[in-house]
Design brief:
By secondary structure, this protein is an all-alpha fold. Helices cover 58% and strands 3% of the residues. The protein is built from seven helices and two strands, in the order E-E-H-H-H-H-H-H-H. It is globular, with a radius of gyration of 17 Å. Mean pLDDT is 76; it is low at 1-14. One of its GO terms (molecular function) is DNA binding.
């Protein structure tokens, strides 16, 4: 399981650390070697290894190829987006939708181990609904653009 360092639900660290952590997690989840990913990009394995270690940042073209290879988006790799079906850190493999539903049903407690107030619960639900709504809008725009 992948573990990201988070603060209030947002992954922290510099951009290269975030990209590296996410690339390594996705690669391991897919069960492929660094050499395999590097060959897909047409780069040396050492260059790809530097991406995962946070020592180098992929160029935009390679970032897009990586996103496509791992079935995600460049925004997710950059840490700017948590996708609807993304596994969040410290959530035991639950999706955003599953966590949102548990919060709505008062199954998740606040940091003090107490039930969330209705206001806090509603705020969490609104935040968790954002990626779902963004995905729906993107799908609608794509359908309308055809």
């Amino acid at each position: 399981m992948c573990h990201f360092v988070t603060y209030n639900g947002v992954q922290v660290g510099d951009g290269m650390q975030i990209i590296g952590t996410r690339l390594k997690c996705l690669r391991e989840k897919k069960g492929v070697s660094q050499k395999t990913v590097a060959a897909h990009l047409g780069i040396d394995r050492t260059t790809y290894t530097r991406y995962e270690l946070g020592e180098s940042k992929p160029k935009y073209h390679n970032l897009c190829l990586l996103a496509e290879y791992f079935g995600t988006s460049p925004d997710f790799l950059l840490g700017q987006l948590v996708e609807e079906n993304a596994i969040l850190p410290t959530t035991e493999g639950k999706t955003i939708k599953e966590i949102r539903d548990e919060i709505a049903q008062n199954k998740i407690l606040d940091v003090n181990g107490k039930p969330m107030s209705p206001e806090v619960r509603d705020d969490y639900i609104k935040v968790l609904d954002l990626p779902i709504k963004l995905r729906e809008l993107k799908l609608r725009d794509a359908r309308e653009g055809q």
